[in-house]
Q: What sequence folds into this?
């Protein structure tokens, strides 16, 4: 679905949000979308697209220049304390305190949020185990790798059982196996009824986790819809990527820097590939993905400028 001006009622509602920094940089340009209860929505875009700026506004850390964000009906500007009581957040560059152990960090955080000592102990152990952190539960955080520290942050936020979770690039710096471990934990939280806003520039992450995708580019929302809506917008199940500039009669070509892409049906892929090879070009046939939605709406690959 191409983005429009009407935003449905939801747990999170963003209406025409703009942000211009004092330096003059315009980071957000009329961002509107909503997140319904129990859904995981991926705010998808390259680094610098405005994702973290929007999350900082929604989590009451930054004031918008114009527009409103509401979380469970509370305005993030006029009623920030009510918002803070119902959210938990993994910040993009946040790490737990080095002098504590993972268990102590999660336990202390839960006490601050109002859990009893017995509840906090139980939840700390449960969610550190869920993130496969049992071997490090009593190791000083300062001795852990950056990836392990990131997983401690995710465990902490999930253990809070907050009504709304903001996860800003939660798997940055994790290896592929650890990333999928975080994905499993987020899927369990969603099955338990959690409402989540995830920012990511990883297409496979959005495809694996999201109920809906909000694609942001240069501060603008370019697309809002489900994964199925995204597949329909892409239009083809396969693509032929050609390394060079090439036109083939009868097929529309999308030109990127140093590459030509033909979006085709399964039956067409073999014919296009044959004609490409006859012309002396190297090519690859791939299944389409969310990256192709990004390419189609922006004319660029997501890693360009990331």
A:
């Amino acid at each position: 679905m191409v983005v429009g001006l009407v935003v449905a009622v939801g747990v999170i509602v963003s209406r025409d949000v703009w942000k211009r920094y004092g330096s003059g940089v315009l980071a957000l340009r009329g961002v509107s979308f909503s997140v319904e209860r129990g859904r995981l929505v991926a705010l998808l875009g390259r680094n610098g697209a405005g994702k973290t700026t929007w999350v900082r506004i929604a989590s009451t850390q930054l004031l918008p220049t114009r527009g409103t964000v509401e979380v469970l009906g509370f305005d993030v500007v006029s009623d920030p304390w009510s918002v803070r009581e119902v959210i938990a957040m993994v910040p993009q560059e946040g790490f737990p305190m080095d002098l504590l152990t993972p268990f102590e960090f999660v336990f202390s955080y839960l006490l601050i949020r109002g859990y009893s000592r017995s509840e906090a102990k139980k939840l700390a152990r449960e969610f550190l185990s869920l993130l496969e952190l049992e071997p490090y539960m009593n190791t000083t955080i300062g001795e852990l790798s950056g990836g392990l520290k990131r997983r401690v942050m995710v465990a902490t936020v999930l253990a809070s059982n907050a009504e709304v979770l903001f996860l800003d690039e939660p798997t940055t710096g994790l290896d592929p196996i650890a990333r999928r471990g975080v994905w499993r934990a987020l899927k369990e939280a969603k099955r338990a009824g959690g409402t989540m806003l995830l920012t990511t520039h990883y297409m496979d992450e959005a495809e694996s986790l999201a109920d809906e995708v909000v694609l942001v580019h240069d501060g603008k929302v370019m697309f809002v819809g489900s994964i199925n809506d995204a597949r329909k917008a892409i239009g083809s199940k396969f693509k032929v990527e050609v390394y060079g500039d090439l036109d083939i009669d009868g097929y529309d070509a999308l030109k990127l820097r140093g590459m030509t892409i033909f979006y085709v049906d399964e039956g067409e892929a073999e014919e296009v590939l044959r004609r490409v090879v006859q012309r002396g070009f190297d090519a690859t046939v791939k299944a389409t993905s969310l990256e192709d939605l990004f390419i189609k709406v922006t004319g660029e690959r997501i890693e360009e400028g990331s």
